[in-house]
Amino acid sequence: MRNLILAAASVAALALTGPVSAQSPIIIKFSHVVAPNTPKGLASEKFKELAEKYTGGKVKVEVYPNSQLYKDKEELEALQLGAVQMLAPSNAKFGPIGVKEFEVFDLPYILPDLATLRKVTDGPLGAKLLKLLDAKGMTGLAYWDNGFKVMSANKKLIKPEDYKGLKFRIQSSKVLEAQMRSLGSIPQVMAFSEVYQALQTGVVDGQENSWSNIYTQKMHEVQKYFTVTNHGYIGYIVVVNKKFWDGLPADIRTQLDKAMKEATAYGNGQSAKENDDALAEVKKSGKSEIITLTPEQDAAMRKAMEPVYKDVASRVGQPLIDEFLKETRGATN
Ligand code: LMR
């Protein structure tokens, strides 16, 4: 795979540095792993529309959804090598390339709602986290929302004990690994594009995701029970290859920044509705049961996952966790 990525990267480099006629547009390949009708799919299409409009066609954005080009970890490598220019991987996927700090977003129940999330991402902490990407050959441009995660399996998941011994697909985040272990289940890292089949064939018993991802991947057709835990959050870091970005003419970069800002506002303004709509579709399909927890059951889940904060403190960094908590829970907590 690496050879393939390298070959694609050298073609991309040629396209950028070779003799270009005045008319040749600058191509931005934007690769992602989800369906077009998801928060990320729609935001990337909006960015394409605005980027092409504001640069008067000098930039062409090619959006490749559904892991058409690359699967989870491969896409970050492809970006670093310059085979694609732009991505929006979830916060949970930066660990394997050495940026484990974004896993702080994966801590169970760390974000009570999207407004609190926005406080973090729009503030100094959000900016500081994006800066960490420079050393990895990428520039962080924006935070895009998906939404809160629910749990699913073919058995009812109500109490922490119900998770015991079940195999759960997770994204490549050590925090998510610790989270599933805190419930006594067996975490299994797997690319997003492989989840449906793994659930269907019983390679894994369950998974966690947002409603928009669940619905567009048809997970509700192969999982009998969904529990509305809202225990964690999936959001995205929009990243661009740094060398490519820094090498753009300044006026073009300014227009692209503007397009990104507006696409971000658009996408984040409607992600909650997209997840609500997806939930409504899952309900309408009648294929699975949706379980809501009582306050007592919710409290038991929170308690069971509490040890995760200590388990991952040395990996994610206790000072970062404290800083995050100060933003999300207030200085008094
Ligand atoms: C997942 O792998 O479950 C998600 O990160 C997919 C995505 O990009 O929303």
Describe the overall structure.
It is a single chain. The chain has two domains: 2-145 and 235-273, D-Maltodextrin-Binding Protein, domain 2; 150-232 and 277-328, D-Maltodextrin-Binding Protein, domain 2, CATH 3.40.190. Helices cover 46% and strands 17% of the residues. The protein has 14 helices and eleven strands. Residues 33-34, 40, 90, 146, 171, 192, 209, 213, 234 line the site of (2S)-2-hydroxybutanedioic acid.
Q: Main traits of this protein?
A:
46% helix, 11 strands, D-Maltodextrin-Binding Protein, domain 2, alpha/beta, 6-stranded mixed sheet, single chain, 333 residues, 2 domains, globular, binds (2S)-2-hydroxybutanedioic acid
β-strand number = 11
The overall number of domains is: 2
Kindly report the average pLDDT value.
94
What is the CATH architecture annotation of the largest domain? Answer: 3-Layer(aba) Sandwich
Q: Structural class, from helix and strand content?
A: alpha/beta
- Our count of helices gives 14
CATH superfamily of the largest domain: Bacterial extracellular solute-binding protein, family 7
Radius of gyration: 20 Å
Largest sheet, strands/sense/barrel: 6 strands, mixed
| Ligand catalogue | (2S)-2-hydroxybutanedioic acid
Helical amount: 40-55%
N-to-C span: 47 Å
Specify the overall morphology. Answer: globular
Short description:
With 333 residues, this protein is an alpha/beta fold.
